[in-house]
Amino acid sequence: MLRMKNNILFFIIFMQLVAGCKQVVASGKAITEFGEYALDSGLQLKVENVSGIVKYRLVNNGGETLILSKDRASVYQRWVIVWDGNRLWFSSSDIGGVVWIKKVDGGYSSTEYYKNSVLLKEAPQVIKEFDG
Description:
The protein is α+β, with helices and mostly antiparallel strands. 23% of the residues lie in helices and 39% in strands. It has three helices and ten strands.
C-alpha cells in the first residue's frame, strides 16, 4: 500500500513538472501546435485555442505582454507561427498572414503581408513555403 501511494505521489509530481515545461524553439522554426514556448531570444510565446480561435501572446522575462494577437484565425484551418529573432510571423490558411515588427519605442505593430510584398520576400523560409 505504501509503495502504491509513493508511485501515485511520484506520478503527480512528475506531471506537474512536465506541465510546467516550455518547449525551447530556435529562431526560424515553425510552431504549429498549442503550448508555451521559450524562444532562443529569451522571450516566451503562448499559443492557445480560445473558443475555436488561435490566440498567441509574446511575453518578455518580466511577464509583460509585448504582442497579443488580434486575428480571428480558426483552429480548424492550417496555421503557423515563426519567430525570426526580431519579428513574429503568423500565417493562417483562412485569414492570410501578419508580421509583428518591433517599433522604436519597444512595442510591436502588426502588418498584413501579401504574396508579392517586400515583407514576404524577407519572411523565413517556413512562411514562404506555407504561403506558397
